[in-house]
Amino acid sequence: MTATTEDEQQHEEYDSKRHAGLYGAQRVKAMSAVLLALLLSVLDYAIANVALPLIAVDLHASSSRAIWVVNAYQLANLSCLLPLASLGARVGFGRLSQFGIFLFLIASVACALSQNLLELTLARALQGVGGACIMSVNIALVRFIYPHNELGRGIALNGLFVGLGVALGPSLGSLILSVASWPWIFWVNLPLALAALALAHAALPETPRSDIPTDVVGSLLTVASFALTGVGLDGLMHADFVSGAVVTVAGVLCWAMLLHYQRERLEPIVPVDLLARRPFLLACLVGFMGFVASNLYIVAMPFTLASVFHRGAGTIGLLIAPWAVGVATMSFVVSRLADRFPASVLSSIGLFITASGFCLLWFLPTDAGNWDIAWRTLFAGCGFGLFQPPNNRAIMVTAPPGREGGASGMLSVARLAGQTTGALLVAALFTIFPNPAFICLGAAMVAALTGAALSLGRKYLVA
């Protein structure tokens, strides 16, 4: 098999000088800065989930209200990704990443000092904005750190650290909560954030900047569109039909105004110019479907293990951990393949393996042993780790020079939008069906197979 097919090569756009990359110690230091900032963002999101029951009790809040400690972070993160990616192209990707780390540090202190749920939720939203500063330009920085013919390695390394953060988060959170109160899950961010800030200031490369003025109106409309749609759909999925429908309609109207407003913009906030390119659009859709599948599994599986397989809380964490281990391990392995083989091959195989893992879990008897559950979970995670880096590379290399920020933002949006959609589908299935555990697993399998089919058909759909 050749490195890439001629059909795929003609869709790759890059500037040999602009994307020359760094070498030696410069690359190691710059990539270390990117990965440390990434780990800070991913790790804190995963840790907070573990502390929700304690936070609810300590702040005298119901479980349904305490969930907003997680939702506020994710919604703020998703809403701000594209405007911040656009801003990064103007002020420099490295500068925006440094600002994000600083904002994340300040928000972590605010979280730790919060005295009630409202204060904590607002501080978490601010943390989400800081995380969006980091995530929106994360892959764009990798695009400038690695030369074009080695980009897949950098993106795979990025995926490895995402997997490590997801895997370490619950364990680290449980360890902290076993010896300290919940504010310490935020205090622990300070040394990591300070180290990331110092390394980023010293090592991140200067990147070319766009001279097109910042689109303030488009940025505000983008934030409103994502936020209102997300809050409205969350209400609908929890059977709050009146207010949910009103807020969702408001979100749809904001989307209509945004898309109309952006039609004549040279570098629109929502990169409709990039989405008009079929290879880019298909890669984003494949990424979206992959993360819909993953969150249908991740959110619902603890309930499946508890209600169907009758496992306790400690065992549930151990049985889900192989997913993250598989993702991280395969992300490392695929780093040597992503630049040699097309995404239409690697990502398709990866999502098919993921769907097969879900299918194997679906057919398990209710008296299955822990090993039977664990190896199937690991198998599905390995498939997901194989899928991500080649597809992420496909998103970045099909964007033209000068649009790295928009491509990096859309990559993160595809991931977060897929995760949010998967979580909303779980909420809807739990609202509709009395015992939806295996229904969610079946839906995850269908979503993964849909993504695999889209990925496999890239060559024909872009013709």
TrEMBL record:
Its main location: membrane. It comes from Gluconobacter cerevisiae. It comes from the Bacteria. The chain crosses the membrane at residues 33-55, 67-87, 99-118, 124-146, 155-178, 184-204, 216-235, 241-259, 280-300, 312-333, 345-364, 370-387, 408-430, 436-457. The keyword Cell membrane applies. Keywords: Cell membrane, Membrane, Transmembrane, Transmembrane helix, Transport. InterPro entries: MFS (IPR011701), MFS_dom (IPR020846), MFS_trans_sf (IPR036259). It is a multi-pass membrane protein. Residues 30-460 form the Major facilitator superfamily (MFS) profile domain. It is found in: Cell membrane. The keyword Membrane applies. This is MFS transporter. Pfam families: MFS_1.
